[in-house]
Amino acid sequence: MLSTYQYPKFDYVRPPEQSGEKKKRYPVVVVGAGPVGLAAAIELAQSGVPVVLLDDDDTVSVGSRGVCYAKRTLEVLDRLELGEPCMDKGVSWNVGRTFFREQEVYNFNLLPQPDHKRPGMINLQQYYLEAFEVKRAQELPNLELRFKNKVLSVAPQGDGAMLQVETPDGIYSLETEWLVVADGARSNIRRMMALDIEGKIFKDRFLIADVVMKADFPHERWFWFDPPFHPGQSVLLHRQADNVYRIDFQLGWDADPEEEKKPEKVIPRIKAMLGDEREFELEWVSVYTFQCRRMNAFTHGHVLFVGDAAHQVSPFGARGANSGIQDTDNLCWKLKLVVEGKAPPDLLATYSEERVFAAEENLLNSTRSTDFITPKSKTSLMFRNAVLSLARDHAFARALVNSGRLSVPSYLTESRLNTPDDDPFAGDMVPGAPMDDAPMRVAGQDVWLLDQVGQRFCLLVYVNDPASLSVDSLAQLKGLASAAVGSGSDGGSRSGTGAALAVDVVLVSPAKAATATGLTLLQDHTDRFAERFDAQDGTTYLIRPDQHVAARWRVFDAAQVQAALARATCNQH
Predict the structure, then answer these.
(1) SS3 564
(2) Rounded to whole angstroms, what are the CA distances from 136 to 41, 46, 241, 464?
(3) What count of other Cβ atoms lies within 10 Å of the Cβ of residue 201?
């Protein structure tokens, strides 16, 4: 099908429900084995939650589809043990350039600061990511992959859902406590449940052409407005793995999609762009329109929507798969606590609250980008071209150029899971912020902060000298690390649901440990942690399992930590 990729075919296995085994009720079923559904299933399974993943196909996605994966997504993939294969295969980049006609008018750097493990973005065809995810999923003993299993109906129940599933061996029933829906933009389950998705469909068409060629273009994103090779329209160029280049040509609303996909229409466009002397082969061609829409809520009883099933954005800005994987990062730790009885179901309402907020940010940015790229009136076109003309020489105009505001994580500053600051802090690491990375050392070995934190609640305590910690403080820190953390002001050692919550306690210090404390010690040998977290002796951060800041203090206090943890898990009384 593609010259650069051999599609795998995953085995269909007869489900146990059709093999005479006694039916059972599963804790979690995920529907949809795209990048988002697979990420959800992997995170749940590797954190100890048994999960069944259903998909009606038996291979990965056709065509390169999703291309750009942002730094935040790579950090999530690191926690799923998928970051390295994606980095090894993908094309890393940080710089983007915007051209108006023949001149560069604007450029940006996604990662101007040094000392981060991951780049601002990588380009990688979606089928590679899905294949890496399937391989990882197959390594997990409590993750059951069921290919060629098509969901025919969903009947939500008060405490779960009942599914009718079709396989080559017939139809069977499947019962689950929680259903995670990741079946894409045309979600059949959303339709079955008669749930609305509202927003805007843009009246424009774009041609995607994946082209195989050898070229010495730098690893950058290039975007043209009104170039001489495609006058009056816009063009986007990205390099992917295997010398495959993604080219997006704006076509206009009146273009005939079927006609525009024909090689005799596509090849002249590419030759006009690259020149007649450049040899290339067409790998994949598609024509698309795009939408900016979302569901009003992502949780409906015990049915939870993620990714394109919950929200859709235009591709400019790489906000589709990135926001979907960040959905699962937000959802899965909460779902784990609820499934295990360590948090009340109300915690899952905060998944919808936080990710609807993030979706609104994405929709706003995508709509603004699309309006700039595809002006709807002559006046808008004149304004845009004036901005582009001025941008080369004037900073105020460069700030208005919008060829797609690229995916960034949301700052969940209004979340009810945060504990507001009582102490003054500088910098960006406010409650609700996604954590910054920093280089560290452990026992003389170079490591990264984000690799040492995640999947459980973590308490980071900055100390100038670990040997100076008092016996009482050490005892309290070890108590937090080894016992269940309380749920409120009574200082008890059980959560409000009567189950233990684990907290990792990590000391961060600019100095090497002079004495053994019995706790993990990270050496901030470059002072990047102190700089990025505005840390001084005694500064304490409570970090959520999805690496967002939950609370921070200038002085460690066990009772305050307990109260903040209770708030972050909806275990307050």
Answers:
(1) helix
(2) 10, 10, 20, 40
(3) 11
Closest CA to 551 of 468, 444, 438, 457: 457
Structure tokens at 511: 């100095």
Q: Are 189 and 214 in contact (CB under 8 A)?
A: no
Q: How many residues are listed for the chain in this entry?
A: 573
Query: Which architecture does CATH list for 16-89+121-196+294-369?
Result: 3-Layer(bba) Sandwich (3.50)
Cα separation, 546 vs 353, in Å, equals: 16
What is the 3 state secondary structure string of 269-336? HHHHHHCCCCCCEEEEEEEEEEEEEECCCCEECCEEECHHHCEECCCCCCCHHHHHHHHHHHHHHHHH
Task: Residue 186: count other Cβ atoms within 10 Å of its Cβ.
Answer: 10
What contacts 423, CB < 8 A, 6 or more positions away?
A: 552, 553, 554
Beta strand 221-225 with 95-100: parallel, antiparallel or unpaired?
parallel
- Per-residue pLDDT tens for 371-420? 888 888 889 999 999 999 999 999 999 888 887 667 788 999 999 999 99
Distance CA 550, CA 434 (A): 10
| 262 to 77, 119, 209, 266, 268: CA distances (angstroms) | 37, 36, 11, 6, 11
Q: What is the tens place of the pLDDT at every residue in 64-92?
A: 788 999 999 999 999 999 999 999 999 99
Q: What is the DSSP string of 495-521?
A: -TTS----EEEEEEESS--SS--SSEE
**Which tokens in the block code for residue 236?**
């986007």
**Encoded amino acid at 129, one letter:** L
Q: Could you check whether 16-89+121-196+294-369 and 439-568 share the same CATH topology?
A: no
| Distance between CA atoms of residues 73 and 326, nearest Å | 7
Give the class (CATH, top level) of 439-568: alpha beta
Question: What's the CA gap between 543 and 502, in Å, rounded?
Answer: 12
Helix, strand, or coil (residue 476)? helix
CB neighbours (10 Å) of residue 546? 24
Confidence (pLDDT) at 562: 93
- Residue 287's DSSP bridge partners are 207
Nearest CA among 129, 123, 97, 118 for reference residue 240: 123
Residue type, 417: L
Give yes or no for a contact between 304 and 350, defined as CB atoms under 8 angstroms apart. Answer: no
Residues of the chain predicted below pLDDT 70: 315-319, 404-405, 483-500, 513-516, 573
What residue spans define the domains of the chain?
16-89+121-196+294-369, 439-568
Establish how many alpha carbons lie within 13 A of residue 279's alpha carbon, considering only the half-sphere containing its beta carbon: 1
Q: Supply 346's token pair.
A: 């109300």
